[in-house]
Amino acid sequence: MRAWILVIVLMWLAGCQATPSTLPQAEPLPAEACHWPAPEAARNVTLDAVASALEEEGFLIRHTDTGLGLVSAERSQRTFYHYHGIDPWPRLGGFVLGGRGHVASGVMLGIGTGIGPVTDEATRVERVSVMVGEQTLQVTRDLRLFGWRGDLVESRTASDADFCQRLHTAIRLQLAGEVAR
């Protein structure tokens, strides 16, 4: 191969390599209810209230960083999922036509899946991070669904208004309990 052809091919391939025009963003964006003004209480008291509120919701606290004002929590549950019309298992079967006009009958033995919860069993992992800043408190949440073999079936952000409003109320109740003590 001549060197000039190689140079043209390399330049053409280099043109395909481009940087993205925007950085990746969470889809869908977190709801407006997922960030609100920070409480008047001290940051450590607020972090304790956030951790207590998440534990009451059934979350397990995975990490806290008082310097950053971050609380990360997780909860998981066993559930079932459906394949949304895509069957992961091949189906075997069919029929055979005989030659020269012969007609035949027979018995077919089929092996299939559909044993029930064995193939549809999954684990749903929900992760929440709460960032307590000087002026605002921000919540992010994501959901992941792992199939019974451990493969990731679904992953999405879930910072919806309903969850954030419930958490906001729980944090306010925890802070009110701290003040009353």
TrEMBL record:
Superkingdom assignment: Bacteria
Signal peptide interval: 1-18
Keywords: Signal
Cited PROSITE patterns: PROKAR_LIPOPROTEIN
Signal in keyword set: yes
Name of the molecule in the record: DUF4136 domain-containing protein
Lineage of source species: Bacteria, Pseudomonadati, Pseudomonadota, Gammaproteobacteria, Oceanospirillales
